[in-house]
Amino acid sequence: MIFFLQNRGRGAFKRAFLVLLFVFGILAFLVLSGPYFKAEKNIKWGITYSKIQAIRMGLDWQAAYIEILDGLNVNNLRLPVYWNDVEEQQGNYDFMDYDWMVTEAAKRNINTILVIGRRTPRWPECHVPSWVSVLDQASQDKALLDFIQVVVTNFKAHPNISAWQVENEPFLSTFGECPEADPGLLRKEVEIVKTIDPSRPVIITDSGELGDWLRAAKNADIFGTTMYRKVGGWGPFKYATYPLPPQFYRWKANLINRFVPVKKLIVSELQGEPWVIGTPTASDKPLEEQYETVNPKYFKEIVTYAKATGIGEIYWWGAEWWYWLKLEGHDEIWNTAKELF
């Protein structure tokens, strides 16, 4: 392309520059003209807590849960309900652990988002009971919809449930051990939730850096973006940092909102734990390797970056790791996080 333009002379360069300038001008107009999300100064901080991740890290998951809620003075919580944990046998639902977690959060007046569906936070992303794999596709879909119906019916009476997140980054096909996204099935899941509980909003999330956001936002009352700074496994690089300004996420949301309006924008996952290669559990690696992507100094930089986004509700990813570090005698990140809540 450069060779072609060089041979066409300065006129071609000028025309190409004007075309690019015009395109950027249109994008700027779409981003900056309403409706748009204004920058928020006061942030509501929250956490995601995963029972299965706490167990993987060798923690007493119940003790860790209570100590995280109380030790950090958490006010906002995102809680995944794992299908394979609740319905190990088809048609037999055991919500005991999740009822307990929601009730403990209610005792502390903690606003709680329940994440439901096949794809929920933590590796391998899709948490499906083993019995589902022997079913044909139509029966698998029905089993998922039945699960959604039972979960919402079970928890809708809890006053501290603030929203339902249906699936987790359902269109992120490049990550996780999951089948291809099915937009029609996602719509059916959302319809079931809204039919059973029309009073609460539905959250749909997408990758902040890799997602197109449009397909997710179509189904959302609230749109949630992930926000990761340092990630692993980029070609020849062990780790890479996304070269994005903090305003990128709000600009992208403003652009998408021109086509698919949503009521609210949140950060559903803010990276607060290391991205390690070869294991879903950072604590499996030596501390030196854990600290390559998130360490006490860089954690403070992530806080500064997140504040600069102007997004008013942000849920941290990694509270289990902060707690594990604290037990290991490294409480710097825990203490920094504690000041936010």
TrEMBL record:
Domain Glycoside hydrolase family 2 catalytic: 66-212
Molecular function GO terms recorded: hydrolase activity, hydrolyzing O-glycosyl compounds
Pfam families membership: Glyco_hydro_2_C
One record GO biological process: carbohydrate metabolic process
Identification of the protein by name: Glycoside hydrolase family 2 catalytic domain-containing protein
UniProt source species: Candidatus Terrybacteria bacterium RIFCSPLOWO2_01_FULL_40_23
